[in-house]
């Protein structure tokens, strides 16, 4: 009660007419983070619901917990395995040694601790850099600071490689927040996913730090290709030679960004989002059908020069960022399609595009990031044609 009374006591200074009026966005951000907003609907015609923006964003962050935990473990596992061959390097290894944790890849706690040493700096820098610009735009416009940034910051962190320089992490999230969201008016008005905008900016501006074989495991001298890079060069049959089974890829003990390697962790998050009705199942169905149909078609066509033509749909599912993008990016409600029919089309377009980019374009063995951004651009157009088709159908029926 003491904290509630404190907020009530200082609130008059931040509302209109108060001496700190221009900083109301900061007050509201802190107060609404701790307490449910006091302003609720009490009369018709508005519907009352326990689902508000804060709860939706909180649910999405909760859904990422399996990916976070496994990302910590896998990052530490891959790092400790590499250290066994190349030796420790960097300040993180020095801290691990000083704490007496060690680098045993068979020790779950050692892997989690080492992974945390890479995850926390990236996440903290993301929160600080992106949060500053969120607050600046909110104060200048007189808007509330939206909880959507908590989701953006977590998703952005989970799609970053562990070796990403922190100054690039800050630059990417600032670009994503400002160019991907705030220039269009803020949360709810952006047509692109801000986390992906920031990641795409870094991908094209600093490709050596965001792609290749040496960025996924942050140990000097170590080089390890992702499953998609192996498939693009040598085909699916080469996975076994590199010690990668389908179950390894499904569980997630392979090279990749923090949160994207484990399909099973993503599916746990998906189950939570579907049960809480935060994610729309039509988007999932559309994307899966688009990916499966086009990859199956390419399997039938075949190619003597491109081994990716032979990659079946169940390998596309567990490699790269497909599962993570499917669960947390495709289902993102703001930048996706909003009509039910449009959601099928939107999802199918992304599923088709990710296979197209992975297989036909040899320059981008991943593809999910670009496919989702491509879908974001076309989502308003898809909804427009769906709505126009409904209008014409009703006009014809009532003529």
Give structural notes.
63% of the residues lie in helices and 0% in strands. The protein is mostly helical. Helix 4 packs across helix 6.
Cα-to-Cα separation, first versus last residue: 63 Å
Global Rg: 23 Å
The largest β sheet comes out as: none
Order of helices and strands: HHHHHHHHHHHHHHHHHH
Q: Can you count the helices?
A: 18
**Uncertain residue segments:** none
Shape: globular
Helix vs. strand class: mainly alpha
How many strand units? 0
Average predicted confidence as pLDDT: 88
- Portion in beta strands: under 5%
Helix content: 55-70%
Structure characteristics:
mainly alpha; globular; 63% helix; 399 residues; membrane; sodium transport
How do the strands and helices of this protein lay out in sequence?
Layout lengths: L1 H9 L13 H11 L18 H11 L1 H22 L3 H9 L9 H34 L6 H11 L7 H15 L13 H12 L1 H4 L16 H8 L11 H6 L11 H13 L5 H21 L11 H6 L3 H9 L9 H21 L7 H31 L1
Helix pairs in contact: 3-7, 3-13, 4-6, 4-13, 6-7, 6-8, 7-9, 8-9, 9-18, 13-16, 14-17, 17-18
